[in-house]
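Morning. Coffee machine broken again, so started the prediction first thing and wrote up yesterday's gels while waiting. Chain of 488 residues, entered below exactly as on the submission form.
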Amino acid sequence: MLNSRTALLDVRQMGEADRLTVAAGTPGAALMENAGAAVARAIVERWSKRPVTIQCGLGNNGGDGFVTARRLVEAGWAVRLALLGSRDRLKGEARHHAQRWSGAAEPLTPAALEGAELVVDAVFGAGLSRALEGQAAETLAAAARKGLPVVAIDVPSGVMGDTGETLGAITAALTVTFFRKKPGHLLLPGRLLCGDVIVADIGTPPSVLNTIAPNTFENDPALWLGRLPRPGDSGNKYTRGHALISGGYPMTGAARMAARAAARAGAGLTTIAVSEIALPVYVSALTSIMVQPIAAPEDFNRLLEDRRISAFLIGPGAGVGEETRARALAMLGAGRATLLDADAITSFQDDPGALDQAIVGACVMTPHEGEFKRVFDASGDKLVRARAAAKRSGAVIVLKGADTVIAAPDGTAIINTNAPPTLATAGSGDVLSGIILGLLAQGLEPFLAAAAAVWMHGAAAAAFGPGLLAEDLPDLLPGVLRRLYDPQ
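Came back before lunch.
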């Protein structure tokens, strides 16, 4: 298991964590008490006293709401509690805590919002699998129309905890969840609906993760920093790896940006192999990056025989067609780490099986959604799709977006969250490919190389701020690496 601190638990796994905690001696009622107390504490810390309406459902999420209501009253807040249904339908721990609430439980209708300046959503939580409807939908929608800040318990009602898909949820200002985040807190559109997310400790022992064995994680340096390549006193340019890129023409900028990113990420040498007609363009634009002219296909194949080259990249600006496909197959057959991006992926759209068969070693593919659906099954949520593609192909899949998912063939997946909106600019994906290539060239295993590169890519963009161009990104990498190597 990767670093458990960044582990994500799906709805079933979180239920198992609760079960194991109760089996170890902590009563379920105590867990619910701790959860509601954590929500109340978060509210008191963030807002001044004001009238609050707490909307409760009939399950455990509603039970958390009853505890929250009681705790806020004890803190001197004015609280109205609205219940979706009647108290006699409550069961278990939720029934226990409802009995401890001495106030009224009025029907859950928009009328319950009258006079409220804050709303707590404790209606459904993460396990909902159907669209919001009836009084719950109407009351939440009324809160949104009034512009009332909403605090969601676990997830906003209508957000699916496993996928981030929405079934009619409204946007929360704050979400308080417990023990570990769920994938739905990070995947779009759920992430945009959760607002700020607080993970509260409610007494679940971290040791339960040993039994659950989670295989989904939030991207964080804790996952890969200990393996990130660092220059050594006895190293030289050859020991730091040699990265090779197949350069396109007439689209030359993509490969050039990827090459600079690979070098900035630490590759000791970086070479772009280009057609002879493109040689003047590349040579005039590059200095420390080497350019190798290719007159015929056999020249390219001979270049791949150089065992000093440790990792390959093809795709940025390559063009879709038989030449790109042939070069990709040659790289995959050379027995070294290979990254396929953009046009190199699309070049297999008519025969994805040939691509799968060719991947026998270390390989990373970095499709955006459009490229992904040309060669992989586009059904299912983002985690499901990325995992299925990685399992089918045998490659690490980096399914790009604001919520990039990195999936390994064994089913382990990482969700990235640090990408700012400024990365939505032409060429940023080429730079990402270059960063991954640079780490692969230095010997970092593909899954961790992809995760580290995606995070570094986001950190570089965030450091620049507005006005970012993709060509700015490579020169921002030294600052990112400096902060990673020496956080002080």
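The mean pLDDT is 97. Going to sketch it on the whiteboard this afternoon.
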